[in-house]
TrEMBL record:
Pfam families on file: SIS_2
Highest taxon in the source lineage: Bacteria
Name the record gives this protein: SIS domain-containing protein
Gene3D superfamilies found in the cross-reference section: Glucose-6-phosphate isomerase like protein, domain 1
Amino acid sequence: MEFFTTYRNTLEATLNKLDLAKVEQAADWLREARDEGRQIFVCGNGGSAMTASHFVTDIVKGASFGRDKRFRAMALTDSLGTLTAYSNDVSYECVFVEQLKNFANPGDVVIAISGSGNSPNVLRALEYANSIGCKTIAMTGRDGGKLAPLAQVNILAAEPHMGRIEDVHMIVCHMLGYSFMDREMAKA
């Protein structure tokens, strides 16, 4: 029981350190992107890839279905053929940036998720997104790594444990998605 209590208590402490003003800024940018018909791109590796896919599902279906204003979002992690072709033929570092070169435009939103903040393919994606005038958001852990200073908004899970970092990132994604599903439905 001690392990589970400690895990929960440490997760709660990490959540309590979360800068909600940055989460709100991210929600504002997502709302603007939706309202202006801009695209949202999300990427990450491993567990962060799954968080990216989950988040996109939540906003493309849950926050869009049956509504006049709909999200145009893509998880850059979801095209297995594209990912493996670039990985095999070029390098794994380019799997996200090359997709952005096909689809991203100035004013779009790019969300990069990395627990360590040091994934080379995620770093390249944010560097490119910044260079063309996208709005950039990072979700990082630990000290933010190299990714935090690249993002215009960095949402930090200030915790060394990867599981709890990923827990916080998923909770932030649910906060963002459900701010459109629950909060906006209450206003209607």
